[in-house]
């Protein structure tokens, strides 16, 4: 779980917060009126998060590219007119 701190206090303690993140392995969430604004994470954590996002994007891309076009059903041209004529098969 991340350590939460109000933005006003975070301003005064920024150097300490950075040390907690870098050397203590903590994650710090800076809040305003109790709502999260930003998070301080180590560069290693950020790199891992970006790698996870890229992997998820690649998975979506490969899933979409593996979809095969569906052949039109008999009588589709009659029901849908010219749009059915120009549909890729």
CATH superfamily: YefM-like domain
Total beta-strand segments: 3
Number of domains: 1
Q: What is the typical, i.e. mean, pLDDT?
A: 81
Whole-number radius of gyration?
25 Å
Spans where pLDDT lies below 50 across 5 or more residues: none
Predict the CATH topology: YefM-like fold
Shape: elongated
| Count of helical stretches | 5
**Element pattern in H and E:** EHHEEHHH
**% residues in beta strands:** 15-25%
Largest sheet entry: 3 strands, mixed
What is the correct CATH architecture?
3-Layer(aba) Sandwich
State the share of residues found in helices, binned by percent.
40-55%
Provide the CATH top-level class: Alpha Beta
- Summing up helix and strand content along with how strands pair, one would put the structural category as alpha+beta
Strand order of the largest sheet: 1-2-3
Distance between the termini: 52 Å
Task: Describe this structure as you would to a colleague.
This protein has a single domain, classed as YefM-like domain (YefM-like fold, 3-Layer(aba) Sandwich), CATH 3.40.1620. It is α+β, with helices and mostly antiparallel strands. The mean pLDDT is 81. The protein contains five helices and three strands. It has a three-stranded mixed beta sheet with strand order 1-2-3.
